């Protein structure tokens, strides 16, 4: 049995042999230089270059002045129409009554806003803390308004006067909308009136603090009755002449005041005739877009003050002083 102990000379010999035994040399991986990286690479298939194969290929060198593309000639072919537009056109052609009401709803909202803008007013005290709204002699809320109807004609900026001026412009549009096709005209008339009621009810709440729905409905019913009367009165004046039309305007817009400005009344009548004549010359498609803007009735004063040719044809009459007057 061999002993586990080793003598001193043997141990020294073993240490000396381990010290001079050459270690295994690992193969060296060639590292490319900076000059090699900057030049186009050619990768080998050696097992030591597998990591380098994953590197991306360098982009090809770009020239200093890139070539400009030749300008494209405009195509003479028409642009393709979207499928949604084609579908809408087909639906409108086959079922115009269905799509007409949606078109009329949006356009009438725009038209009513233009009508309501003519005699617009505000009540500043409504937005003040503990503000007291002034009243007229008959108890109506008194506001502040600008424009010809208040500054030149002398109307009081109240809710009733605003409604009457808006009705007057709505009647002008109603006369033009009657020329639409029999199948389309009813929806335009209805949407025009509906949008006025929406606007009037909003003004009751926003400017006059009328939060009770029951009270608002009472006012709206009264406005609807007035609208029906305005249609009959203005239609009669449109047929029978300016004198009858002026009487209807005097009763509604001027509240049948005895000290009415006759020249201002004539301006309104001449203004109504002129706007209706202008809308008559516009096509249905243009009116159907809602691009309608009303002008200043004060521009009609030169026609109102012009002497009528009929007055020159009347025989002269003598008054009590013996002076002949026409």
What would you note in describing this structure?
- The protein has 326 residues and is mainly alpha-helical.
- The protein contains 13 helices and four strands.
- A hairpin with a 5-residue loop joins strand 3 (317-318) and strand 4 (324-325).
- Helix 4 (96-117) runs parallel beside helix 7.
Radius of gyration: 46 Å
- Low-pLDDT segments: 19-24, 29-56
Average residue pLDDT: 79
Q: Proportion of β residues?
A: under 5%
Q: What portion of residues is helical? A: 40-55%
Taking the alpha carbons of the first and last residues, their distance comes to 166 Å
- Report strand order across the widest sheet: 1-2
Strands, count: 4
Order of helices and strands: HHHHEEHHHHHHHHHEE
Class from helix and strand fractions = mainly alpha
Dominant shape: elongated
Q: What's the number of helices?
A: 13
Main sheet record = 2 strands, antiparallel
């Amino acid at each position: 049995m061999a002993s586990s102990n080793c003598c001193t000379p043997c141990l020294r010999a073993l240490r000396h042999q381990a010290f001079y035994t050459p270690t295994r040399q690992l193969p060296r991986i060639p590292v490319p230089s900076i000059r090699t990286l900057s030049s186009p690479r050619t990768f080998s298939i050696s097992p030591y270059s597998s990591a380098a194969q994953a590197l991306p290929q360098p982009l090809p060198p770009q020239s200093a002045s890139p070539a400009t593309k030749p300008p494209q000639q405009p195509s003479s072919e028409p642009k393709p129409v979207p499928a949604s537009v084609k579908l809408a056109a087909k639906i409108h052609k086959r079922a115009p009554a269905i799509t007409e009401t949606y078109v009329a709803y949006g356009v009438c909202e725009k038209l009513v806003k233009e009508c309501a803008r003519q005699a617009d007013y505000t009540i500043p005290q409504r937005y003040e803390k503990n503000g007291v709204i002034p009243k007229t002699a008959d108890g109506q809320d008194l506001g502040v308004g600008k424009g010809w109807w208040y500054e030149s004609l002398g109307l009081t900026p109240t809710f009733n006067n605003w409604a009457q001026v808006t009705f007057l412009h709505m009647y002008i549009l109603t006369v033009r909308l009657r020329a639409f096709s029999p199948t389309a005209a009813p929806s335009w008339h209805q949407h025009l009136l509906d949008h006025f009621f929406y606007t009037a009810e909003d003004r009751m709440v926003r400017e006059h603090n009328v939060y009770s729905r029951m009270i608002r409905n009472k006012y709206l019913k009264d406005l609807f009755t007035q609208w029906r009367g305005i249609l009959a009165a203005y239609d009669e004046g449109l047929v029978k002449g300016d004198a009858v039309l002026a009487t209807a305007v005097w009763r509604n817009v001027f509240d049948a005041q005895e000290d009415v400005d006759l020249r201002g009344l004539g301006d309104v009548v001449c203004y109504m005739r002129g706007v209706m004549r202008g809308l008559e010359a516009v096509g249905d498609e243009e009116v159907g877009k809602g691009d309608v803007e009303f002008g200043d009735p004060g521009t009609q004063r030169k026609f109102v003050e012009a002497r009528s040719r009929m007055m020159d044809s009347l025989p002269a009459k003598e008054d009590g002083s013996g002076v002949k007057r026409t």
